[in-house]
Amino acid sequence: MRKSDSDSDGLVDAHFHFDLFKDSAEVLAEIASRRVRTIAVTNAPSVFHHTLKFSRTSPYLLPAVGLHPELVATHGRELDSMWPLLDQTRFVGEVGLDYVTSDRENRAAQRGVFSSIVERCATYGDKVLSVHSRRSAADVIAVIGGNYPGRVILHWFSGSRRDLDRGLEAGCFFSVGPAMVKSSNGLSLLSAMPRDRVLTETDGPFVQSGGRPARPGDVASVVEAIAQVWNVSQDETKSTISRNFESLLATDLRSRPLATA
Ligand code: MN
């Protein structure tokens, strides 16, 4: 990642599905012109190369290799093909657990996959994970544990206040998107988050913004909503989030442990 003053006052989209947009070049040009540092998550190892290829042309696109929990039932066999890809990038996602399914075998398979990924990532020490935790926050945090040596971002967090506290104790960051700032539960969680653990995201194209699938530049509206909750200016909110992103990426993680909340 190239570092410059212009990046540090830019925007952050910590969870965006770049590969699900057909107009890749146009989306990437927009990301660069609006200076949005974007973690481009993918849902299966077999689709990672497309994003990796585009990421080589722009410092704003940070490619993440993932295996989405809702795809474990159909794509779980791709897990082994993820391991060599971990050498290609520092970013991992979308991974995690989704307990919308009540199928016990499916949930157990998801936990197996997610645990293996976390364990494998822990051997690197600096991996940044973007994690899905729908209806499964307590188990997600239990799998991550208290000693994961990289960074974890809980994306679109919708757990309880108790889960939030557990996530903070585990050192997690939280990427907040357009849907969270429109829901009363999302806003109440946001108010309870220490400001130095908050990031922004879109989760486009799974979230709409302005009547179309959200793109990284749409985090501007999330910044606006967070600024209202924090009762500070949008500029200050933007620089806080940018600073948080810098601290997320700080290279010497082991010597700079996060204080527990
Ligand atoms: Mn997603």
Helix and strand arrangement:
Blueprint: H1 5-8, E1 11-16, H2 24-33, E2 36-40, H3 48-55, E3 61-65, H4 72-75, H5 79-85, E4 91-96, H6 104-122, E5 128-132, H7 137-144, E6 151-155, H8 161-169, E7 173-176, H9 184-192, E8 198-200, E9 208-209, E10 212-213, H10 219-230, H11 234-249
Parallel strand pairs: 1-2, 2-3, 3-4, 4-5, 5-6, 6-7, 7-8
Antiparallel strand pairs: 9-10
Helix pairs in contact: 6-7, 10-11
What's the gyration radius in Å? 17 Å
- Share of residues in helices: 40-55%
Decide which structural class fits the backbone.
Answer: alpha/beta
Q: Please give the CATH class.
A: Alpha Beta
Strand line-up in the sheet with most strands: 1-2-3-4-5-6-7-8
Structure description:
The chain is 41% helix and 16% strand. It is α/β, with parallel strands linked by helices. It has a single domain (11-255), classed as TIM Barrel. The strands form two sheets. The chain has an eight-stranded parallel sheet. The longest helix is centred in the middle third of the chain and has 19 residues, at 104-122. The radius of gyration is 17 Å and the shape is globular. The two termini are 29 Å apart. The model is unreliable at 1-6 and 254-261 (pLDDT under 50). The chain binds manganese (II) ion. Manganese (II) ion is lined by residues 15, 17, 41, 94, 203, 206.
Which short descriptors sum up this protein?
TIM Barrel, 11 helices, disordered C terminus, two-stranded antiparallel ribbon, globular, binds manganese (II) ion, 8-stranded parallel sheet, alpha/beta, about 260 residues
Q: What would you say about this model in short?
A:
The protein is an alpha/beta fold and 261 residues long.
